Amino acid sequence: MKIAVDKIPAEGLELTEQIDPGRISSDLKGQGVDFVKSVDVKARFTKSGNEVFVDINLAVPCEYTCARCLVKVQNIFKKDFNMNYEVKPGDILEVDEDIRQEMILDSPMKFVCNADCKGLCPNCGQNLNVAKCDCGKDVGPIKNRPLG
Q1: What are the structural domain ranges in the chain?
Q2: Is the pTM of the predicted complex or chain greater than 0.85?
């Protein structure tokens, strides 16, 4: 999302854009987050002196993978935030990288489908939320082990 600072009128400017999810999603795949559609961005730009203030609203359907049982969960990632920039006449303001960074910072490091998720049997791989494993080894659920 680019805007010429000189094009922002006194009353402000609202823009709507869709960002390709591939630009953000690749950074989050290791965290079990995948954006399945374009990121809908609504931004309001206002200018005061040599500063531009940007109010941003994001919404994107996403798919999280549970770090314990590997089940995929559909959800909508939403975030509202503000940014401000010091500018001079003639500047072109580009906010895509800041939007990407906000989304990365606000995404969970490890997503868990449910606080009581029992995880997978580390021996046979059975999802212990669905059924007890029959592998014969009483090792207990992964939930009692560190996530990372």
Answers
A1: 2-114, 118-148
A2: no
